[in-house]
């Protein structure tokens, strides 16, 4: 190779690395760049220790279901993964049905808009986003409906990210973000015209507790819609492969334990809701939601190389490589769960709070 060719090759490699590390942002505009990866509210030098603490939780499976530390456990998880999610996935931390001719981003927005359309609210209504993350759905829903959205997330770092995004999008007048636990919300009884939760209540130790709290803050006659993570009727608890897949999803997504699809209706009825509709939005005629994960394998490993380089250079916190590797492996479990039909991230239930209760 002559000097000119060598120079061109080195220049191309350097330019590519610069683009991926310094410029390449998330799947959505104005998202995170690789050089901004952090541990959320966790100090840089403590990220690795917190990651180890996160995994130690799963060595005590019975404690996951009963301990009062679950909210803190979920908070730690989102400190570790929020920046990586934004960088590699976007500002909406959820899945959506694949629609022919539509981009992933368009499918995401359609899925979010469907939630607020089901609530039947008018512009100016006060709507709660229970488990809002960094606010991707709330911004799409506010822009689509004209409603005033109040989001709640347990993670303070996500609150700050959401407020920043709301301001950049020019939607901070419609979008409010509160740091709090959706099991004990700082809102008055009967104070919301509608409530939605998108793949968020799966983090609650007991679904009944969060549904009861949502019931409390919802005005009589108003609607609640949730997209739930569940095991489907095809899941066989006696099949070791099925069990391994579901446990992989639980460990990699901070879940106290996935619920059965049949549990959702029973819990909603138990707390007092009228169930208006219930369906798995992942089933046909919807196209597979998990193909996005399968097609993204090359991108995942490319990003993993970037994270490894940044960690080696001391730009990304020590432990970021382990966190990213966990998410890559979890994506594989999610795709397998979807492909086998034993897991769905979008079991939809639409409920109404009775006029008299």
How many helix segments?
13
Distance between the termini: 80 Å
- Under CATH, the topology of the domain at 104-286 and 342-353 can be stated as Rossmann fold
Helix content: 40-55%
Give me the count of strands. 8
Please state the overall shape, judged from the principal axes of the Cα atoms.
Answer: globular
How confident overall, as mean pLDDT? Answer: 88
β-strand percent reads: 15-25%
Given as residue ranges, the uncertain stretches (5+ residues, pLDDT < 50) are: 10-16, 18-23, 26-30
- Give a short account of the largest sheet: 8 strands, mixed
Tell me the CATH architecture of the domain at 104-286 and 342-353.
3-Layer(aba) Sandwich
Catalytic activity: 24-methylidenelophenol + S-adenosyl-L-methionine = (Z)-24-ethylidenelophenol + S-adenosyl-L-homocysteine + H(+)
GO molecular function: 24-methylenesterol C-methyltransferase activity
Organism: Solanum lycopersicum (Tomato)
Protein name: Methyltransferase
Please tell me about this protein's structure.
It is a single chain. The chain is α/β, with parallel strands linked by helices and 357 residues long. The protein has a domain at 104-286 and 342-353: Rossmann fold. The protein has 13 helices and 8 strands. Strands 1, 2, 3, 4, 5, 6, 7 and 8 form an 8-stranded mixed beta sheet that branches. The radius of gyration is 21 Å and the shape is globular. The N and C termini lie far apart (80 Å). 46% of the residues are buried. Residues 77-354 form the SAM-dependent methyltransferase Erg6/SMT-type domain. One of its GO terms (molecular function) is 24-methylenesterol C-methyltransferase activity.
């Amino acid at each position: 190779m002559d000097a000119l060719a060598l120079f061109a090759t080195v220049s191309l490699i350097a330019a590519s690395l610069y683009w991926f590390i310094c410029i390449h942002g998330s799947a959505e505009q104005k998202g995170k760049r690789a050089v901004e990866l952090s541990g959320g509210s966790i100090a840089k030098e403590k990220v690795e220790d917190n990651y180890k603490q996160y995994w130690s939780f799963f060595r005590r499976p019975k404690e996951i279901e009963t301990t009062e530390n679950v909210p803190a456990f979920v908070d730690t998880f989102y400190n570790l993964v929020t920046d990586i999610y934004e960088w590699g996935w976007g500002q909406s931390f959820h899945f959506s049905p694949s629609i022919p001719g539509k981009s992933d981003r368009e499918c995401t927005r359609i899925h979010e808009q469907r939630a607020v359309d089901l609530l039947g609210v008018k512009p100016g209504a006060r709507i709660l986003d229970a488990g809002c993350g960094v606010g991707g759905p709330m911004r799409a829903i506010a822009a689509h409906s004209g409603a005033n959205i109040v989001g709640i997330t347990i993670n303070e770092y996500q609150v700050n990210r959401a407020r920043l995004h709301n301001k950049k999008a020019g939607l901070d007048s419609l979008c409010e973000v509160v740091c709090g636990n959706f099991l004990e919300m700082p809102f008055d009884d009967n104070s919301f015209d509608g409530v939605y939760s998108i793949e968020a209540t799966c983090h609650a130790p007991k679904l009944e507790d969060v549904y009861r709290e949502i019931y409390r803050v919802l005005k009589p006659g108003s609607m609640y819609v949730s997209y739930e993570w569940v095991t489907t009727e095809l899941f066989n608890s006696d099949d070791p492969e099925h069990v391994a897949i579901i446990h992989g999803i639980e460990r990699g997504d901070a879940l106290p334990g996935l619920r059965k699809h049949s549990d959702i209706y029973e819990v909603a009825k138990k707390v007092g809701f009228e169930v208006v509709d219930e369906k798995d939005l992942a089933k046909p005629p919807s196209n597979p939601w998990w193909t996005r994960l399968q097609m993204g394998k090359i991108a995942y490993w490319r990003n993993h190389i970037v994270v490894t380089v940044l960690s080696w250079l001391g730009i990304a916190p020590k432990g970021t490589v382990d966190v990213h590797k966990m998410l890559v492996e979890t994506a594989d479990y999610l795709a397998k769960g979807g492909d086998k039909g034993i897991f769905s991230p979008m079991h939809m239930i639409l409920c109404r709070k009775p006029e008299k209760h």
